[in-house]
Amino acid sequence: MVRRLWAMGAENPISFMHPLDIERIDILKDADATSIYGSRAATGAIQITTKKGKAERHTTDINLRTGWGKITQKLAVLTTQ
Length: 81
What we know:
Elements: E1 2-3, E2 22-28, H1 30-37, E3 45-50
Antiparallel strand pairs: 1-3, 2-3
């Protein structure tokens, strides 16, 4: 599956994509990009191909993080006095 990322008002639309889902990244220049995407890609285009799901078996990846913190010294800032 090839996903085309257009400017959606976000600073970096690629940040919404998980890095493990990316199979291949292709850089299209000049005539290659223009023939597929038209004049909007006259200077080039980046094409991201994502991995396809396999019907053979199901897997689950779990990433867990734990931690704790303690305030060692409180600063007296932004008080009402």
